[in-house]
Design a protein that fits this description.
Rossmann fold; about 50% helix; 20 helices; 5-stranded parallel β-sheet; Helicase, Ruva Protein, domain 3; elongated; 4 domains; alpha/beta
Length: about 450
């Protein structure tokens, strides 16, 4: 910890105005000092730049302010009537205070510095100081906070899955086009979204697309696989605990989007807590006496029948109804065969760069064989096939252009493959176009339009 008052000379240049405004634009600050002149000085210096600033004359007033509202940063004097700033900060840490703190003091002795470090003060400034010194301290403090959060989330993603989904929705098939149109409509709203569909259909990629289209795009996107964490640790992982080294993923995701995959795997006790958090938009970590306001968008995903999970007692009915405000069903790959060529080309390019190997050619004969395959593992299975083929330098015999010595198949366009597939579904549905549209994940109008074009 560096005493800002010692290291910053009085004539040091004020940070760039644009940089200050970017850092402080979304920061809520509480100023705690018994001197009205100092409070007024800080309010004039920081007020025009930050989202919200409030003041308190002593520790008791400061506690009431924290109970009423959330602050990202507290700037407090150490010597105050009733209780010192450091003692007050230590008390707040014990009952639930996760914000940053900068200490103001007229006495920069070693004992004060050690005490400040132990109670979690990020910096301290030596009185008297100028506006550029406090601005430097505040910007440095918030930059460090953002960097810690980014590092935590990056390490979490790497620990959870070294190849997390970071792609985009690819394809122009009716099913994926309908998903994309729905995402564009719902992105500006704060409502929860539930993605359903078979495993490997791209639910996380769709969730990331929703986040990227929203006004939270520059904030964290935090994916959590509810089946990959031990049940006894899930509450700590999500909600955090006072005195623990982990603040909880919900706090780290603040301002952004929390994506809970395989939601039916969440332990029932954690489901109850999550429901309260969603309803109130407030969080109380284990051991805390104070609730923390949250600003989060919740997005969920499941590859099982959630109504059946409710009936089996695996998912709370009240949680199911709360998260199922808007459901988006992701189409299976065999229902969007027209997108296979685009997806294969994308994966070939990605693995060529990652593996440092030449890109495989993708002739029409290979595309047609890919289109005729059933793909039970959906897009994930296609991705794995492409990765394996890139490593080996060739497609497996059943997908190779020469067919592994088999009789060459007649040329056929992807449009023909799509036509044959849709007509087969229609036949299976006894000609019921509404049912066929439901199975294909497209609108009834799409089926009518295609049949009209084929004169069927």
């Amino acid at each position: 910890m560096t005493p800002a008052g010692r290291t910053l000379s009085a004539d040091q240049a004020v940070p760039e105005t644009g940089a200050i405004n970017r850092v402080l634009a979304n920061v809520a600050i509480l100023v705690v000092d018994d001197e009205p002149g100092m409070r007024n000085f800080l309010l004039r210096t920081l007020g025009p730049r930050c989202k919200r600033i409030e003041e308190a004359a002593d520790a008791e007033q400061a506690s009431k302010r924290l109970d009423a509202q959330h602050f990202d940063l507290v700037i407090l004097d150490n010597v105050m009537p009733g209780q010192s700033g450091l003692d007050w900060l230590a008390d707040q840490r014990r009952i639930g205070f996760f914000a940053e703190a900068i200490l103001m003091t007229a006495y920069a002795d070693l004992d004060t510095a050690i005490h400040a470090l132990r109670v979690g003060a990020a910096d301290f400034v030596l009185k008297p100081f100028r506006s550029n010194q406090i601005l430097n301290a505040v910007v440095r403090c918030m930059d460090q906070r953002y960097l810690r959060r980014e590092n935590f989330l990056l390490k979490y993603e790497l620990r959870a899955d070294g190849l997390t989904a970071r792609g985009r929705l690819i394809g122009s098939s009716p099913g994926i086009a309908a998903v994309r149109a729905t995402l564009e409509k719902v992105a500006p709203t704060p409502v929860p979204v539930l993605f359903t569909g078979d495993s490997g259909t791209g639910k996380e990629i769709a969730a990331r697309t929703l986040h990227a289209l929203s006004d939270r795009a520059d904030k964290p996107f935090v994916p959590v696989n509810c089946a990959s964490t031990a049940p006894e640790r899930m509450a700590l992982e999500l909600f955090g605990e006072i005195g623990s080294a982990r603040d909880g993923l919900l706090l780290h995701a603040s301002g952004g989007t929390l994506f809970l995959d395989e939601i039916a795997e969440l332990p029932l006790a954690v489901q109850a807590t999550l429901l309260r958090v969603i309803e109130d938009n407030r969080l109380r970590p284990a051991g805390a006496e104070r609730e923390i306001p949250l600003n989060l968008r919740f997005v969920f995903a499941a590859n099982v029948d959630l109504k059946a999970a409710v009936a089996r007692g695996e998912l709370r009915a009240d949680l199911y109804h709360r998260i199922n405000v808007l459901e988006i069903n992701m189409p299976r790959l065999r229902d969007r065969v027209g997108d296979i060529a685009d997806l294969a080309e994308l994966f070939i390019g990605q693995f060529a760069r990652r593996l440092g190997v030449p890109a495989l050619a993708l002739p029409e004969a290979v595309v047609l064989k890919l289109a005729r395959y059933d793909w039970p593992g959906n897009v994930r299975e296609l991705r794995n096939l492409i990765e394996r083929s890139m490593i080996l330098g060739e497609f497996p015999p059943e997908f190779a252009a020469d067919g592994g010595g088999a009789e060459p198949e007649p040329a056929e366009s992807l449009h023909a493959v799509e036509r044959r597939h849709i007509l087969a579904i229609l036949e299976a549905c006894g000609g019921n176009r509404a049912e066929a549209a439901r199975r294909l994940g497209v609108s009834r109008k799409t089926i009518d339009r295609k049949c009209a074009a084929w004169h069927d």
